[in-house]
Amino acid sequence: MKIKIAPSILASDFAKFGETVRQLEKNRADYIHCDVMDGNFVPPITFGAQAVAAIRPHTSLPLDCHLMVTKPASRIREFADAGADIITVHVEADPEHVIQNLEKIHAAGVKASAVINPQTAAEELFPACEIADMVLIMSVVPGWGGQKFIPETLKKIEAVRNFCTKLGRDIDIEVDGGITEANVREVIAAGANVIVAGSTVFRSPDMAATISRLRG
Ligand code: DX5
Ligand code: ZN
Questions:
Q1: N or C end: fewer C-beta atoms under 10 angstroms in the chain?
Q2: Phi, psi (deg, nearest 5) at residue 38
Q3: Which conformational region is residue 87 in: left (phi greater than 0), alpha (psi within -120 to 50 degrees), or beta?
Q4: Strands (E), 75-157
């Protein structure tokens, strides 16, 4: 499967999003990962659909919007209108309506994805695997960049990839949190193909080389 690198602008200078996404595109990132935090589902507040709309004209790369928000259903329309290409909703934010939320994202003309936290079992993502374009497995507790990768995530990636293979669904599996050049090969070997990287990309002295090495 094609490996895609999705740098998270959470680790970048919030005063320079336009410049940052142009630089990421030039340095051959595949997606722009936008970490939306509402101060409720997770303690920090980052940015919302208005910022995504402001970024939109600065890049043709897909905007991969990870919604760490309560009541994600009520936010889908505004992110679709802002120009999101992928919208990811947390299973934990609305466990009863994961499928309906994915259908709502599709109805808005956007690729649909669901995500589980480190404390949530891989099985909780299985129903989403039937209809999602992508699923995301958190490898840190969401809310902050620069944390340490939780190694138990590898087994969950394998379980979700095996389940998708059994279904005959060759979907993207994204992993988010604590990914470095030292652990990315294991993450890919476990079955992930979309790699989020915040601090690894933005702390690098040579962003293009780091993105290329993460891709392998
Ligand atoms: C955490 C965010 C991540 C974060 C990753 O809540 O979802 O996308 O930015 O940052 P690093 O790569 O620094 O762990
Ligand atoms: Zn994220």
A1: C
A2: -105, 5
A3: beta
A4: 86-90, 111-116, 134-138
pLDDT in tens, the chain (216 residues): 999 999 999 999 999 999 999 999 999 999 999 999 999 999 999 999 999 999 999 999 999 999 999 999 999 999 999 999 999 999 999 999 999 999 999 999 999 999 999 999 999 999 999 999 999 999 999 999 999 999 999 999 999 999 999 999 999 999 999 999 999 999 999 999 999 999 999 999 999 999 999 999
Query: Ligand 1 pocket check: which of 5, 9, 10, 12 to mutate, most ligand atoms within 8 Å of Cβ?
Result: 10
Q: Which ligand is nearest to the CA of 42?
A: 1
33's enclosing H/E stretch is: strand 32-37
* CATH architecture of the domain with range 4-215: Alpha-Beta Barrel (3.20)
Angle at 17 between CA 14 and CA 21, to 5 degrees: 140
CA of 178 relative to ligand 1 center, distance in Å: 7
pTM score, whole prediction: 0.98
Best residue among 47, 153, 199, 201 to mutate for probing ligand 1, ranked by most atoms within 8 Å of CB: 199
**Which residues approach ligand 1 with their CB closer than 6 A?**
8, 10-11, 33, 35, 66, 140, 142-147, 176-179, 196-200
| 28-to-66, 81, 90, 196 alpha-carbon distances in Å | 21, 26, 28, 14
Query: Which residues are part of the catalytic machinery?
Result: 35, 176
